[in-house]
Structure formats: C-alpha cells, structure tokens
Amino acid sequence: MSEILQQLSHCVEFGKIDKISPYPPDMKGQDGADEIAKRALDEGLNPNDILEKALIPAMAIVGDKFSRKVIYVPQMLMAAKAMSNAMKHLKPFFQSGEAIRKGKFIIGTVSGDLHDIGKNLVAMMIEGGGWEVIDLGVDVSTEKFIKAINENPEAKIGLSALLTTTMENMKKTVGTIREKYLDSRILVGGAPVTIDYCQKIGADFYSPDPQGAVNYLNQLKL
Ligand code: B1M
Cα angle at 119 between 115 and 121, to 5 degrees? Predict the structure, then answer.
C-alpha cells in the first residue's frame, strides 16, 4: 500500500479527524483524515482505491479492536468521524453519475440503529449510478419508510442494519412494506445481514457491498 494510503488508514484507525483536532494527543498538530484524503485525490489516487484499500480496512480494524475491548465507544466514534471527513472529499467522485435519473431509490438505516457510514456509501454509489436517492437517515421507523413509499410508490427501497439486534426491526419493516406494496423491490444489506436472512424475511436482494446494489438496480431498468 502507498505511504499516503497508510497514513490515511492510520488516521481513521486512531480517530485523527483533521489537523486542528487535538485527538489523539500523540498526533496533535499533524494532518488528519480530512487533509490526507484531499491530498490523495490531488495526487491522482483512484477514489475507489482510497475507499477500499485505506478507509474500509481501517474501520474493520476498529471493529475488531472494539470486539476485543482494546477500544471503547468514544474511540469508535472518533474513527467514524475521521472516516466521514475523508469521505466528504470522495463523495463528488461517486456522485458524478448521469444527469438523467433512472428512477428513485429510498434508503435508510432501520429503527434503533445509528450506523450510517455504510448506508451513506451505498446511497452515494447509487446516486452516482444515476438514481435519485431519497435518504431517510438513521433510526428509520417502519412508518417513516411507509410514508416515503406512499409519496414515491414507484421507488425501489433499501434497508441497512449493522446490529444483530436491529435485524429484527429490518424484518418487521420488510414485512410491513411487503404487506402494503406486494410488488415493491426491497434490497437489504449491512455487516450482519446475509443472503439467507434476506430470503427469510422476504426481501428481494441482498448485497454485501454498494456496487452489488447498483448492479441489481441497473439490471431492473434493462
Ligand atoms: Co458500532 N457496532 N455500535 N458504532 N460499529 C459495530 C457494528 C460492531 C460489529 C462492533 C463490534 O462489536 N465489533 C457491533 C455490533 C455487534 C452486533 O450487533 N453483532 C457494534 C456495537 C455493539 C455498537 C453499540 C451497541 C456500542 C455501544 O454503545 N455499546 C452502539 C449501537 C448504537 C446504535 O446504533 N443504536 C454502536 C455505536 C457505534 C458508533 C456510533 C460509535 C459508530 C457509528 C458511527 C456512524 O455510523 N456514524 C460505530 C461504528 C463506527 C462501528 C464499526 C466499528 C464500523 C461500522 C462501519 O461504519 N463500517 C462496526 C464494526 C465493523 O463493522 N467492523 C460497529 C464501515 C462501513 C463502510 O461498513 O456499515 O458494514 P458497513 O457497510 C458496508 C456493507 O455492510 C454494505 O456496504 C457498505 C460498504 O461496503 N452495506 C450495504 C451496508 N448497508 C447496506 C445496504 C445495502 C447494501 C449494502 O442495500 C440496501
């Protein structure tokens, strides 16, 4: 991995957001994820490489450290902020899809779940793939999904869940959508979600990554 990607990965892993951030104390005054991501793009690195070789693996390390109780929620939050600050520079590259929209896509993280990094990435890529994205945010109740579908009955729907506990809420929301909108197309994803779970709860498609979701939506349009 190139030196700049290593530096970026280090910033996300240790929660160094930007130069002015005093955290972590041993990196005070140094560039953070914000400046380094911008520099990587200025130097011509591919946005996909930045995401897949530096940012996503760094978050995986953070998750592993959290599981092993090496770090706790505050450090995880700093890492998430560092990642978001890097992602704001990548966003325009992923969103520069065609101006003519292929259709609408409603997305949200299910009720009780506040994780939005993966959901935001999926939203960005789908928007970049030429779809109009209606992002309902995090902790989205079934009622909020239904309201958005009522207002946009032709839209495809995406649900993200990162906690085993909130997968139950995903099931509930998918069930209610299915009852009211038999022909709707529902995509699900998020770290604990599997293809088996997708089938079990009656969703149409599971993708482990944003590109799979984009490909699925695009082939629906063919
Ligand atoms: Co949380 N957290 N967290 N967390 N967190 C996990 C998920 C966890 C696995 C960490 C661990 O224990 N190793 C664990 C869940 C355990 C479990 O349920 N089995 C956990 C826990 C326990 C918690 C809390 C309960 C901790 C606590 O308070 N004690 C708490 C819950 C809060 C809540 O939601 N109610 C909590 C809080 C937080 C923070 C707020 C501190 C922060 C989130 C900040 C934010 O999102 N703005 C956070 C973080 C950062 C993580 C980890 C470290 C990283 C998640 C992430 O952003 N990954 C995570 C550990 C891990 O995942 N390794 C962890 C990077 C992101 C790009 O990946 O979201 O998987 P991901 O998205 C991927 C794919 O899954 C896919 O595409 C994305 C890109 O490849 N995808 C889709 C996602 N959605 C999709 C939808 C699709 C298709 C693909 O179609 C619709």
Answer: 125
